[in-house]
Amino acid sequence: MALLEANNITKTFGGLTAVNDVTLTIDEGRIVSVIGPNGAGKTTFFNILTGIYKPDKGTITFGDKPIAGLKSNDIAALGMRRTFQNIRLFNNMTVLENVLVGMHTHLRVPFWHIIFKLPTVQREERKARERAREHLNYVGLDDKREELAKNLPYGDQRRLEIARALAGEPRLILLDEPTAGMNPNETAAATTLIRRLRDDLQLTVVLIEHDMRLVMAISERITVLDYGTKIAEGDAHTIRTNPRVIEAYLGKGAADAA
């Protein structure tokens, strides 16, 4: 069953068309990758799905709700969360506090309860901290919960971003370059974690990734963008042998040789 459907999405900036008439369907419970050379429009497409940009043309449905043009926080509240290519943590907050921030769309205590410090505030805060620790334990960071985020090793910062995304209790999680800058051991651990998100938590996962070994190993469906246009879609074998994909990455000579 389709969890997300984006139809004929177009976004221009001045005279540049960053995303050109892209249609993408994400089935529930799948691991899907969106790939392409630098400047292909991948992150712009993610930004449109998550409400950072409004599409100039096209429709997006998440579950049974149209979301094109909604604000990012409203889309997040519906169950779509993401990480970013450039890590966006609150560096001077603790690891635990970063995850608590990710829960803001699910906290239900009225504002006046907070003003008067009623017992309901203390109860919800305690439950939130317990749940945050569960997310940290899941990604292997609970023992570092009191450390400042800026003091974590790079790979741990990436895992903290995922824990913060999980704090929003998502149905769909979008990972933008989740293994960028990682060493081989960190990449292997991240690959295992991505699989667990789907297998353990029944999440739908969409990732932008340049590590082709990871993409081919983990993805059940791959969509390829080039200059903002979708040029191919299919399973790993289909994408690996597609002449247009080979040309986009390696040039026309390589495509002709293939």
Keywords:
258 residues, alpha/beta, 2 domains, six-stranded mixed β-sheet, four-stranded antiparallel β-sheet, 11 helices, 40% helix, 24% strand, globular, P-loop_NTPase, nucleotide-binding, AAA+_ATPase
Nutshell version of this structure?
The protein has 258 residues and is of the alpha/beta class. The protein has eleven helices and ten strands. Residues 4-252 form the ABC transporter domain.
CATH class category label of the largest domain = Alpha Beta
This entry's quaternary arrangement is: single chain
Shape: globular
Number of strands: 10
GO molecular function, one term: ATP binding
Domain ABC transporter: 4-252
GO cellular component, one term: plasma membrane
Organism: Candidatus Viridilinea mediisalina
Explain what this protein looks like in three dimensions.
By secondary structure, this protein is of the alpha/beta class. The protein folds into two domains: 168 residues, Rossmann fold, CATH 3.40.50; 77 residues, no CATH class. It contains eleven helices and ten strands. It has a six-stranded mixed beta sheet with strand order 6-7-8-3-9-10, with helices on both faces. Helix 3 runs parallel beside helix 6 and helix 5 packs across helix 6. The longest helix has 21 residues. The radius of gyration is 19 Å and the shape is globular. About 3% of the residues have low confidence.
